[in-house]
Amino acid sequence: MLHNWLEQVFRFAQLGQLRLNRTEMKKIAVLLADDHTVVRQGLRVLLEAEEDIEVVAEAENGRAAVQLAKEFRPDVVVLDVAMPLLNGLEATRQILRDVPRSKVLILSSYSDDEYVQQLVEEGAIGYLIKQTAANELLKAIREAHKGNAFFSPSISKRLLEQCREAFVRGTPGRKRSRRLTSREAEVLQLIAEGHANKQIAAELSISIKTVEKHRQQVMNKLNIHDVAGLTRHAIAKGIVEGSLKRI
Q1: Burial of residue 183, with CB atoms counted within 10 A of its CB: 0-12 exposed, 13-18 middle, 19 or more buried
Q2: pTM of the full structure
Q3: Among 60, 65, 166, 226, which residue has the least CB neighbours within 10 Å?
Q4: What residues contact 232, with CB distance under 8 A and at least 6 apart?
Q5: C-alpha dihedral, 44 to 47 to 49 to 52, nearest 10°
Q6: 162: three-class secondary structure by DSSP
Q7: Do residues 127 and 99 make contact, with C-beta atoms less than 8 angstroms apart?
């Protein structure tokens, strides 16, 4: 399925490269963040075939995406959900905290309702699934740059149905479990990726004792008290991919 989508992206980009007489304009600066090199390459070809879009940087994990966003201050960040070291949800939180003028557009294979809801609540301006048409991604980037929300039709439909259901019942949206802090979520992801406490401490520049404290808080909030359970939870929520687990 991913290969078919990439073929469509390359074909669409090749058509775009045939355009001549490009006019001078301020281009939309885009940061691409995806841990699959072939996906980033395909997206770069697609976007740079457009006269009004420029890819200013690429990131292969969420932590790099945050750093590059602070460095390049892009107009739009196209962000995957399941990335190593820092997932899309936490990267979105940190990017919009540090570079509030940037717009975050999620492009992912995951479309879990809870995850979509959390990303929207954290400030993501749009959410597209990777099977979407290439021209929809281009439209989404342009709309995001204008400050307009843009979602894949299937996601828009589900969000609308949830709003209607909440309105009819006269109840707020789905009740969430106790929310992890940004640091706790980072620790959860690194645990699920197979890092030991010492490695997590080095990665986050905190003490091992602090890591242990965050680990316990994560377990208490999720009511999961073993590493295997935390890992299954992270995979089920799209925080990490099963192939990322190194234990």
Answers
A1: middle
A2: 0.74
A3: 226
A4: none
A5: -140
A6: helix
A7: no
Task: Yes or no: say if 189 and 82 are a contact pair by the CB < 8 Å rule.
Answer: no
Q: What percent of the chain has pLDDT over 90?
A: 49
Q: Report which of residues 117 and 167 the model is more confident about.
A: 117
Residue 2: both structure tokens together: 């991913």
d(CA 81, CA 116): 10
More confident residue, 55 or 240: 55
Closest to 62 (Cα-Cα) out of 239, 234, 230, 213: 239
62-94 b/e with 16+ CB inside 10 Å = b? bbbbbebbeebebbbbbbbbbbbbbbbbbbbbb
- For the beta sheet containing 28-33, the strands, ordered from the edge strand earlier in sequence to the opposite edge, are 53-59, 28-33, 76-79, 103-108, 126-129, 150-151
* pLDDT at residue number 245: 43
In terms of C-beta density within 10 A (0-12 exposed, 13-18 middle, 19 or more buried), how is residue 44 classed? Answer: middle
**Token reading at 91:** 């990267």
> What confidence tier does 110 reach under pLDDT thresholds 50, 70, 90?
confident
The mean pLDDT value for 75-103 works out to 93
